Amino acid sequence: MRMAEPGGIAEGDLEAAGLRLSVTGEVATVSLVRPERRNAMTGRTWEALAHVGQTLSESVRIVVVKGEGSSFSSGIDLNMFRPGGVEGETSLMDRIARGSADDAELDAVIAGYQEGFRWLRRPDIVTVAAVRGHAIGAGFQLALSCDLRVLADDAQLCMKEPALGLVPDLTGTKPLVDLVGPNRAMELCLTARTVSAAEARELRLAELVVEGAELDAAVDDLVAALLAVPREAASATKELLRGAPGRTLEEQAAAERRAQAGRLTAMAAQAARG
Ligand code: CAA
After folding, report:
1. The model scores a pTM over 0.90
2. Which residues are in coiled coils (predicted)?
3. Which are the contacts of 255, defined by CB distance < 8 A and separation ≥ 6?
4. Percent of the chain predicted with pLDDT > 90
């Protein structure tokens, strides 16, 4: 594994990190743009993804995450594990081999990578993964980090990490368990088997499965429907729903009351302003 150089991502470096960001009005599209490598990702890609989250315009309400070409993402760039590694990034594997990377450094590096995935849950935005072809390892975790997943019927999801001697560590285990339960999550991870689009729908890993040619249109329709709901109500509702699994019914009922009081107060203030 290679560690990104200190100093972060400068403006204009996204493409070199394998990412493209385009913003149209309230909608941002983050594309993985290494189709010749099936959108394999490096540490630099995840840093760049974190940078996108940190610098996203406040006017953006919806973020679509997609991959260019035939695959959403083939996961980590396997060169990260090979001698020579990935050009332009310091090899963490080499440091570990030399004994110069300690636990605290590893923890900090992985935490930095995870930042690229964590922001996709933010309550002020709704994130949609548009998945065609393979979503493997880190690619599957990226799709899982989004609020909603629209799959083309050729999508193939696979949590490959255990088969490579690793664990899934890019924040994908929590949504996987939340969606399919711990036993199914274990079966999927510990066999590292591939889940088809049809099975993904059954397992609630996809909100929608469409023909490949319809993927972009289906995502556009979903985005239009999401935009039709007032932003503040959507944010408050997302926060309420995301918190629900960790609360008792009593606590959730109280959270609903607080959120509704906030909405009613805001609406009354708006009405008073005319
Ligand atoms: N890393 C580096 N290169 C990759 C890559 C990857 N993850 N995936 C594909 N490529 C490269 C291939 O080596 C090939 O390069 P060449 O043209 O130079 O030969 C090119 O991309 C096209 O790939 P294929 O010819 O294999 O394309 P395909 O459509 O037949 O198959 C695929 C696509 C099923 C994704 C296959 O490429 C594959 O299995 N890739 C490896 C997937 C993998 O094991 N990823 C790691 C997941 S674990 C993870 O992500 C761990 C983590 O976060 C810690």
Report:
1. yes
2. none
3. 240, 243, 247
4. 85
